[in-house]
Amino acid sequence: MMRPKPGLSLHRLGWLGLLSIFFLASAAWGLDIPPLTGRVVDQAHLLSPSAISSLNTALAAHESKTSNQVAVLTLASLEGHPLEELSHQVATAWALGKKGTDNGVLFLIALQEKKVRIEVGYGLEGTLTDAKSSRIIRHEVVPRFRSGDFSGGIMSGTHAILATIEGTYVNTPSSIENSGHMGLWETFGLAIIVGTLAGLFLGSGRRVNGSVIGMVLSFLVAFPMAIWLGILAGVVTSLLVGLFNNVGGPSTRNPFIHGSNLGWPGQSGSIGGSRGFGGGFGGGGGSFGGGGASGSW
Questions:
Q1: Phi-psi region of 31 (alpha: psi -120 to 50; beta: other; left: phi over 0)
Q2: In 10 A of CB 106, how many CB atoms?
Q3: Helix H segments across the chain?
Q4: Cβ of 5: how many Cβ atoms within 10 Å?
Q5: What is the pLDDT of residue 166?
Q6: DSSP letters spanning 179-229
Q7: What pLDDT is recorded for position 288?
Q8: pTM above 0.70, yes or no
Q9: pLDDT at site 16
Q10: Is 296 in contact with 115 (CB distance < 8 Å)?
Q11: Percentage of residues in the chain with pLDDT exceeding 70?
Q12: What are phi and psi of 195, to 5 degrees?
């Protein structure tokens, strides 16, 4: 009687384990995306009606002038969800920006956790860079929030975002940069390096087993930053370890990834239908890849 190859069983077991982790994490971290009711969604009630009206006017004028879609969201709490994860899901579900140009921005404030993030669409990452977004948070938003002026911080941050995109924002570069903070793609690169090296050395010649080891380790390194980043890091690492060992190659391409669409939890048809709320304002189909910056006060 023929027995199955142990390597093949380990390989299947590894993919099954990663898939299980993905579904468990998705179920645990599923969240209700706030409906897109307008350019300003103030669920934390940090803005006065006049401030909301002023922001709506500025955001609408900017969109009319440039076609960029910028939205502001305040939340009373993240309810245990990672800031970057939630911000990316909301921006993607709202589909801010135009399809093809991906020129959307989400300015998110979480009151209870004292965190803020600027999420930038693919098309604006070269203009509203991570460094510029971080500088806006540090100079325009955080000082006002720390003094209790939430309305002023949101107004100032929003206008700085618009001015930066339009090329009119002027600030003094700070010598105190948050150099110790790692962004999404820095974490992704670190996860790939650590996982690949671990897979090659700890595999001890057992090629498929090494792929599994590297895949799981990469996932664990990148997972705290974002679920999708952990999954992507695990898959890429598995392919790299297999490639270095002359095993796998194109045939091991993960069937769960096609481009950058990872099937986010919460992005159902009902969410898509919410884009038309708010007097005709809705997302135009823009995409986001994790660009932007986060901060706290």
A1: beta
A2: 25
A3: 6-28, 49-66, 83-94, 130-136, 142-146, 150-166, 184-202, 207-222, 227-244, 269-273
A4: 10
A5: 92
A6: TT---HHHHHHHHHHHHHHHHHHHSTT-HHHHHHHHHHHHHHHHTTT-HHH
A7: 83
A8: no
A9: 57
A10: yes
A11: 68
A12: -65, -40
- Asked whether the beta carbons of 36 and 275 are under 8 A apart, the reply is yes
Q: pLDDT for 77-103, tens place per residue?
A: 998 899 999 999 999 999 998 888 889
What 12-21 contacts at long range (C-beta under 8 Å, 24+ apart), as own/partner pairs, is 13/212, 14/208, 14/211, 14/212, 14/215, 14/216, 14/238, 17/212, 17/216, 18/215, 18/216, 18/219, 18/231, 18/234, 18/235, 19/256, 21/219
Please provide the average confidence, as pLDDT, over all residues in the chain: 76
Q: Which two tokens stand for residue 3?
A: 């027995």
Strands 115-121 and 104-110: antiparallel
Spatial CA neighbour of 174 closest among 142, 150, 215: 142
Among the listed residues 287, 286, 288, 295, the one whose alpha carbon sits nearest the alpha carbon of residue 131: 295
Which helix (H) or strand (E) covers residue 148, if one does? Answer: none
238 neighbors 14 (Cβ within 8 angstroms) = yes
- For residues 18 and 225, give the distance between their C-alpha atoms in angstroms, rounded to a whole number: 17
The residue to which tokens 């800031």 are assigned:
83
With CA atoms as reference, report the closest residue to 25 among 189, 260, 192, 220.
220
* Contact (Cβ atoms closer than 8 angstroms) between residue 199 and residue 248: no
Query: What is the pLDDT at residue 227?
Result: 72
Greatest extent of the chain over all pairs of C-alpha atoms, in Å: 79
| Contact (Cβ atoms closer than 8 angstroms) between residue 272 and residue 98 | no
Q: Rounded to an integer, what distance in angstroms lies between the CA atom of residue 294 and that of residue 134?
A: 7
